[in-house]
Amino acid sequence: MTKNVIAFQGELGAYSHEACRQSRPGMDVLPCRSFEEVIEAVRDNKAELAMLPIENSTYGRVADIHHLLPASGLHIIDEAFVRVHISLLGLPGTKLGDIREAMSHTVLLGQCRKFMREHGILPVTGTDTAGSAMEVAKRQEPALAALASPIAGEIYGLDSLADEIEDLKNNTTRFLVMSREPDRKRRANSEGGDLMMTSFVFRVRNLPAALYKAMGGFATNGVNMTKLESYMVNGSFTATQFYADIEGHPEDPSVARALEELDYFTSSLSILGVYPADPLRVRQKATRSE
């Protein structure tokens, strides 16, 4: 296996690249063209870890990721919350008033509509955020800018014409760090917090109120479920798989009992990973409980 390499989707300067720098600052990075290529890089021993975005606080879940995770053969060993700061990046010497169009991934375009309207800037869809910054640098059109991370501006030699232009100032993307081998031991996060998370996918049995009954075990055992999403499997309207995140470790008595009850009502159950909660999650949890 290629040690000390973490793969991500996008060009250098993408938010996934920023997630790699924040979560694994000592590792070399491997840019990939697609999520599938990121997964294959780890499976083929070209990288030690994969960094994959799963959801954004403004835009919602990242398309395709939930389908890819169960079949990837990889295991979640960590999560990383990255605050998404969006900059308007233009050619050196240009000013905000010169910009008529801004290029970026469609997800990012949807996260700064207010700024775009206020300045009369038209959106242009690009392949991804850092790739759009690269394209702007390549085209050399003064009226064209990119919406991307500040580090993309540094990498591609663009000036920052406006910073933190996102509509919501708590705009955050959650990433998963994945490995070929699972790591289910209890461990602290980067700030010493000991809250553990468990992620899993399951399908309920063909029984009346099966999902309701399956979820009951988490309520009666006091296990907090932070995420539950459903999606169709193999294009069938009748085959539904669920993805869930819960607080706790599978060896916690309450979690063990809840998973045991869940198993009774499911036709399949697979744990994707056990990992420390990101410090931002811990701080938000503490704030809500006050």
TrEMBL record:
PROSITE patterns named among the record's database cross-references: ACT, PREPHENATE_DEHYDR_1, PREPHENATE_DEHYDR_3
Enzyme Commission numbers on file: 4.2.1.51
Reaction catalysis annotation: prephenate + H(+) = 3-phenylpyruvate + CO2 + H2O
A GO molecular-function annotation: prephenate dehydratase activity
Highest rank taxon of the organism: Bacteria
Keyword Amino-acid biosynthesis: yes
Keywords per UniProt: Amino-acid biosynthesis, Aromatic amino acid biosynthesis, Lyase, Phenylalanine biosynthesis
InterPro entries per UniProt: ACT-like_dom_sf, ACT_dom, Chor_mutase/pphenate_deHydtase, Preph_deHydtase, Preph_deHydtase_CS
Pfam families per UniProt: PDT
Top EC class of this enzyme: lyase
Pathway info: Amino-acid biosynthesis; L-phenylalanine biosynthesis; phenylpyruvate from prephenate: step 1/1
All copies of domain ACT, residue ranges: 199-276
The keyword Cell cycle belongs to this UniProt entry's keyword annotation: no
Ranges of residues in domain Prephenate dehydratase: 5-180
CDD domains: ACT_CM-PDT, PBP2_Ct-PDT_like
Protein name: prephenate dehydratase
